[in-house]
Amino acid sequence: MDVHIRIGDTRNFALKHAVLLYQEGNRAFATLHEVKFRPDGPAYLCAGDSVTTGFLQTLAKGLGTDMAVEVLPENILARTPDLIAWWSPAQPRLMFFGGGNTEARKLNGKMYPHPSLVFMIHEREMFVRSLGENRRPKSNTLLKNAPYWNTDAQGRVCPGSMRVPEEVSVSTITNWERAFFESEFTHPSGAVRLTTHPSGFLGLWSGLADRKRFPVRFLADSKQTLREFIQASYID
Question: What is the count of structural domains for the chain?
Answer without folding.
Answer: 2
